[in-house]
Structure formats: structure tokens, C-alpha cells
Amino acid sequence: MSGFPILDLVIGLFFIFFLLSIISSSIVEIALTVTMVRAKILGEWLLRIFDTEITDAKGVKTPLGQVIMNHCALTALSPTDKAPSYIDARNFVSALLDKIFTFSTISGPKSIDEIISSIGNSTALSDELKRTFLIYATEAKDTFKAMTVKTTGAIELFRSKMENWYDSNMDRLTGTLKQQYTRRFTLLTGVIVCIALNADTIEIAKYLYNNPQARANLAIKADAAIKDSTYIKQVAGINKLAATVKDTATKQKLEVSARQLAKTVNEKVADISATKAVLQDSLPLGWNANEFNLQGWDIVFFVLSKLVGLSVTVAAIMMGAPFWFDVLNKISNVRGAGTKPKESDN
């Protein structure tokens, strides 16, 4: 409790927005997991970029992207002919180079010069990809020659450049995931959550304004939330939500299986239940039959007010839980900035 009723009201509203955003983000994560959107985006990218058809030992023509998906370095991450949700940059480069060298006059090159020749002669790459990878190989060769102290090899430098190229492409795919799926799912779930809980910003603000004790309790809960390891972990997970097209140290070798899907869904459902319990303990949510016992212009004003109130809440949810968590942190820091200084020893 800050001692300023209006400030407590604002903090309470922001905390409600934060909790609703957590619920929405958990639902979005469930949707992305069950629909395997990440794997779909990654698979489309592989088939689009590596579209050169190569002929295997059985005479079957297959796009290089599909061959990479089925490489032994990646097949442990997903079913055959399916892209995994995550591919580590090092594993990807290993699979790609293996196929490049397989369909070249020089297989298993041992030096950077042999790698340059192998890429140039490979039939698995388009001309554009050849030019790009040859530039990286040449740059690695020149960089190695210019090094006074040879702390690494030319081949390692080349692999590093290839991994950086892959990571930069995954960053762009992350933008695609966020633009085409995450934002749409968040908007849809925000609308559903707000309607289901009747999370009307106008009505919530009125309730907090007229109930000092509820207002003070919410302010206390908001202050405790920013130090709560559970909320901190949830916010960290949400921050990674749209950045998981490429693998991370915490999600290496994620297998897309029914067991994994069930585990993820169950974890998110638990998050939703816990967050909803905090919400319902803080203020009355839901629809009241008395709200609809209106006549004449009262109905019009009610509908307009409800649309505005729900729309504001949906817009707040679209800002995301990390945004509101950061806002609550800043407010807490400002409130704590006026602490009494230590007395001088003099």
C-alpha cells in the first residue's frame, strides 16, 4: 500500500493486466505447441531455401531441405520427413555440410581449400547459396591467414560463419512467427479471456475505487509478485515464446511427441488455474444476471461501456505480461527511491 489511493488503484489495474496477460500467454503457448506451428515454419523455410532436388542411391529425387530434415543429426528431434520444432545451429550446419560434400567431387574435405572446391562443385546447392557459402569460406580462409596467433582453425571459422548465417535466418523466422501467429493468437485469446471473465477495465477501476481494502490488497500483491520466483519464471518463459524457432540451451533435442505435448499443456493449464485463483481472490469477476436487467437507453449505455471496458483490457493483454511486469518493477523502484538515507557517522 502506497498511501496514495489513486496510485494503489493504478497499481492494482496494472497487476490485473499482468495476470490476465499470463493467462492469455499460457493459452497461446498451448495453441502453438499443439498445432506445431514452429515446426511448420521451420519446415517451410528449409524447403524454400534448399529447393534443389538431389537424387539418392535409389534414384529418388528429393529436395535438399527434405534430406536435411531426415539427416541422422536431426532425426532424433522429430519424426521422419517432418521438421523439428527446434534445430541447434551446430547440428544444422553439420547436416547441411554433410549433404553438400556428399554431392560433390570432393567428399569429406580436410582443409578450407578443399571445402571451397567442394562447395563450388556440389550439385546440391543453388547458385545463390553457392555464392553465399563460398564467400563465407573465403572470408574464413583470409581471416585465418591474417591471424598472428592461430587460436582456431580456418574450418572452425567457416563453421562459425555458417552457424551465424543460420541464426540470422532463424531470427527472421521468429519475426514471422510473432507476426503471423503469436499476435493473432494473443488477440483471439485476449478477447475470449476478457469475455469469459467479464474483465471490464471500467468496472474493475470502479470496484477498486469504491473498495479501499481490495485496492490496498492488490497493491500489496503486486509488490510481492515482482519478487516472486514463480512469476519471474513465467515472464522469462513468455519472453522466449516467440524466440523459439531456433534451439536454445534449455530446449536442446526437444522431441515432438504426445508425451511432450501433454506435459507442456498440463504445465500451462496449471499456470492458468493458479493465476485465475489469484484473480478471483482479488476481485469479483464473471457475469452477473442483474447486469442485463436494463431497459431503454440504459441498455445502450451498458453495451457501449462494456465494449470500451473489454476493449481496453484486450489492448492491455496485447502488451504482454513482460511489459506489465516491467511497469510494476519500475513503479516499485520509484516508490522505493524515497527511502531514508543512512545517517552519517560524523
Automatic annotation (TrEMBL):
Q: Keywords assigned by UniProt? A: Membrane, Transmembrane, Transmembrane helix
Source domain of life is Bacteria
Q: Where are the bilayer-spanning segments?
A: 6-32, 299-325
| The name this protein goes by in its record | Uncharacterized protein
Record organism: Mucilaginibacter ginsenosidivorax
